[in-house]
Each structure stands twice: as C-alpha cells, then as structure tokens.
Amino acid sequence: MKTMMSVAWAQGSASGTTGSTILSFLPFVLIFVIFYFLLILPQQKRQKKLKAMLEALKKGDKVVTSSGIWGTITNLGKETVTVQIADNTKIKVQRDHISRVRVDEEE
User: Fold this and answer.
1) Helices (H) and strands (E) in the chain, counts
2) Would you call 98 helix, strand, or coil by DSSP?
3) Considering the entire predicted model, what is its pTM?
4) Using one digit for the tens of pLDDT, what is the confidence trace for 5-34?
5) Shortest CA distance to 50 belongs to which of 33, 69, 70, 64?
6) In what order do the strands lie in the sheet containing 89-94?
C-alpha cells in the first residue's frame, strides 16, 4: 500500500511540473518576440528598401557611395557602377556600395 501511494504521489507531481516548465519558457518567448519587432523586422524593411533603390539606379543619378564619395552615374553594369566624381575622373564601384541617391537640393 505504501508503494502505491508513493507511485501516485510521483505521478501527481510530474504532471504539475510540465505546466511550470511551459511557464518557465514564457519569458524567453516574450523576449524573442520583442527582439523580432524591435530589431529583426526594421532591419528587413531597410534591406528591402536598399535593394529596391539599387535595382532602380539609372544613368544620370547623383549618388553617394558608402565611403562618402559623391558622383554621378555614367554607366551601369550587372555588379558594378561607373561614377563620375570630377570632370575627367571616373571610378568603378561595386553596386552594393552605393548607399543613397542624392536629391538636387543637397548640392
């Protein structure tokens, strides 16, 4: 009789720990959700916006490279862009290194 009570006691306490185990993971799930909305989602939006900007580049666009060089696009390749930075000076940069397109008011 004593062993049957100890078995019943063990089964009853085991079912109670599964509920507390799920509750112990709840803070980690909440932290992940917060990180997703504060860090991951805005970064994905920025990457999509940058990719769309790089695909929409055309000749004559005034751009700024990631290194801070201002110039005008004179030729577009699949992976490279030729940027004129002075009257007789053209440089070829990787398309990914164009950080933004300038607006005319920025002169």
Assistant:
1) 2, 5
2) strand
3) 0.66
4) 555 555 555 555 667 888 888 999 999 999
5) 64
6) 89-94, 80-86, 70-76, 62-65, 98-101
